[in-house]
Design brief:
Three copies of one chain form a homotrimer. With 333 residues, chain A is of the alpha/beta class. Chain A folds into three domains: 94 residues, MurE/MurF, N-terminal domain (Udp-n-acetylmuramoylalanyl-d-glutamate--2,6- Diaminopimelate Ligase, Chain: A, domain 1, 3-Layer(aba) Sandwich); 185 residues, Hexapeptide repeat proteins (UDP N-Acetylglucosamine Acyltransferase, domain 1, 3 Solenoid), CATH 2.160.10.10; 31 residues. In chain A, 20% of the residues lie in helices and 28% in strands. In chain A, the strands form six sheets. A ten-stranded parallel sheet of chain A has the order 8-11-14-17-22-25-28-31-34-36, with no helix packed on it. In chain A, helix 2 links the parallel strand 5 and strand 6. The longest helix of chain A is centred in the last third of the chain and has 19 residues. Chain A is flat. The interface between A and B is large, with 75 and 70 residues. Strand 36 of chain A pairs antiparallel with strand 37 of chain B, so a sheet runs across the interface. Chains A, B, C: Keywords: Acyltransferase, Coiled coil, Lipid A biosynthesis, Lipid biosynthesis, Lipid metabolism, Repeat, Transferase.
């Protein structure tokens, strides 16, 4: 299943230098793992030492790294080597595993009232309920549930175990018990969205939960009812977003972070891993909030002191006042 | 699928004022989203400004808001507008999607030794193992697994992807390896319990894991072996409860919180999102523990200082002693 | 389904003392729950008071507890009572539920190009894709997906809803959008691995994600692409491990912890629950980092002060300098 270097640049562009077009490439590999039959890439100048030591047949580099790369051997010069590498993986995938054809696996359960585009692919043991829609060229891998009236756009990838359109978590308290609020909205997912394994996106209470075009969600993410996620935002694994939160476009959320409900995150907000977002963030930027790891004994000491932090501040204030009084020749009360 | 205002009050009670019984209602909507064919609700006086501006055909309000509401147009006066709204959504659901009938979907795999009540509904691709029981009017949506000997009460809703009765996580260490402790208990779930998508409830080691009547669990929750969750408690998404913890009745746990094992939470304990419960909580109340979010640069400074917190306390103490000595005319050692 | 005490020691070893071999044992139970027909165990001397009060027919104890136990009644003296208990649960399971036979459930979807060992058991509604391999005596419970080319060793237990081999989360940013990096690696799982319900293990980008022999993973865990988990490590529920992290052998990770990407944890590292690992840990030991729980009002005060922690440190420093100057008879500037 090799490709020739010439075939790669013909397909993806870039300038092949210092090497022959008919060099066969067996696979793509990182700089340190690559062998003499492999294509590698230098995504950042800080890895330049690994470049020099790499045994790769050819390395994708940015124009600024061209001479350094040529001193080693063959290279493909490309504007953005990391994007070039991404497209090379797509070329490999297409070469080795022919693009899946549309169609519904015999074991899937698709309601007659659902609409699946002929070019969409519904994998084994999926469930597509009444009124649900799956757009052109979308691929539901296996064991995916798409609930009633939920809509998935074109060219989406939905990994195994995903649940789209379970009921949002809505109950009214009455005399110590919970009265169910039926969730009458649905889920609307745009085009080019990818959803990781076992992730859940709940249907809205009255209006729809919305995931806009180009959003990428990792595994085991919880998206509550009536959330809206803006275009091209990306969430790492195990994130939870509570009901009615609105996340802007081009945001990123790190793994295990929690976004509380009814908040608004501006476009370009970046949340670090394991951070709890408790208020709206109206300006782009990086936001963080988790307890720094330490060896357990030191953590215990600091954590215990943390519970007195407010009192420590009062003691500092008292010291300042005492000292100020002392400086002024007055005896503090 | 409209309902008339008269039909709504006939079904749910409350006093229709300032409007005609034959007004058709197309849907339920929030105050700001409602159009002239919609029913809305004022759940709290703080939203009264939205009430004045709402275009809703009719608004559900508490008695204290009656006059304000009548100044705008039609209203239904009800003791608890939020509960009334919840029951209205149920009316809508019943009207638009007829109550599901009992029965086992042809694609489900139900062991001949399982007991499914004739009025229970087992959705597509569920697995019900030997000795498992599902009570009257319970509904397992799709792709739910109920393990051997696990019991689900009446009127429960179990969303897609739920796993009830996987083995609890029990191993005995022996010479650097793990010896499996077979999990000989099961899971016992009461009546009127709702369980969110992809949530897991493990079977007990020796006795059963127990979820009492009326408990509501959101998506992607992990309930360890031998946990007991008291009546009418509610957990938001992504919560983890470790083995043998006992949560009281009428508790709430916020999203992403972690409850460690072998702890006891009294009735009426409320845990904030992302909080780690490391000790038993014997009094009702609200408990919290997560690092406050900040912009990343400030967080980094504070987090770095946090690691010296215990030493800062020592420095404050030293300052206090020095100053005390200085005040007393003594030179500190 | 009782066993006689004599049968138990014949199967598992240990010395039966103070009791008759023909005593029937109905079940295994904890010291406080055990009745007169039950076998119990004393795993640690700190529970010795429960031992004295237990109504168990027989108690498994360590040699040092022998006399104390005999004062109460029958006991089995064993080197490690907790391991003995574990093996007793296995005996019980084998007695009451005959070992599952190999075979593929009729409802499972197994690609003709997959290799399933004849002694492996593939439960209902599993999906085994092309090129995947399942080793001898492994048991996939129900609704498990094993993706293309992923390999599972011998004697593994994979609980319901697990997804092995979904795509790792890899995208290259290009002009505000995300270009998919096809994940060309697979997942390689060793022997004697147990994987909890709804856990996800992603396939590698270029090389494989690796889970070594004897690893135990609880429910709802996320393992990113190209992670390597060393032999006999154990992770509690809801843990997330980001891409390319390397966890050593004999590590433990508490529930809800997050391990960031491209880090290395040495053998014998133990991470407390809900801790965020942000740097490599090169020495064995216990590491912790979560905000201590408090009642909400106190937490709010301390959390607010925490945001000024860096400034508090500056104020302490200023106080120290002022006081030092004052001691030296100089007026501080």
């Amino acid at each position: 299943m090799s490709l020739l270097l010439g075939q790669i640049v013909d397909a993806l562009g870039g300038a092949l230098e210092g090497g022959a077009r008919d060099t066969p490439i067996a696979r793509i590999a990182s700089l340190d793992a690559a062998g003499p039959g492999d294509l590698s890439f230098l995504s950042h100048p800080r890895y330049r030492q690994q470049l020099a030591a790499s045994r790769a047949a050819c390395v994708i580099v940015a124009p600024a790294m061209r001479e350094l790369a040529l001193a080693r051997g063959a290279c493909i010069v490309a504007h953005d080597p990391y994007v070039y590498y991404a497209r090379a993986t797509q070329l490999w995938r297409a070469r080795n595993a022919p693009a899946p054809r549309g169609g519904v696996h015999a074991s899937a359960v698709v309601d007659p009232g659902a609409q699946v585009h002929p070019s969409a692919r519904i994998g084994p043991l999926c469930v597509i309920e009444r009124g649900a829609q799956v757009g052109a060229d979308s691929w539901l891998k296996s064991r995916v549930t798409v609930g009633e009236d939920c809509r998935i756009g074109a060219r989406c990838i939905v990994h195994s175990g995903v649940v789209i359109g379970a009921d949002g978590f809505g109950f009214a308290p009455e005399q110590g018990q919970w009265v169910k609020i039926e969730q009458l909205g649905a889920v609307c997912i745009g085009d080019d969205v990818e959803i990781g394994a076992n992730t859940c996106i709940d249907r809205g209470a009255l209006q729809d939960t919305v995931v806009e075009d180009g959003v990428k969600l990792d595994n085991l993410i919880q998206i509550g009812h009536n959330v809206r996620i803006g275009r091209h935002s990306a969430f790492a694994g195990c994130v939870g977003v509570a009901g009615s939160a609105r996340v802007g476009a081009h945001c990123t959320v790190g793994g295990g972070a929690v976004v509380l409900g009814h908040l608004e995150l501006a476009d370009g907000v970046h949340i670090s891993a394991a951070t709890v977002v408790t208020r709206s963030l109206t300006r782009p930027g990086q936001y963080t909030g988790f307890f720094p790891i330490d060896d357990n004994a030191r953590w215990e000491r600091n954590a215990a002191t943390l519970k007195q932090l407010h009192r420590l501040r009062e003691r500092i204030k008292a010291l300042e006042q005492t000292l100020q009084g002392s400086m002024n020749g007055r005896t503090p009360r």
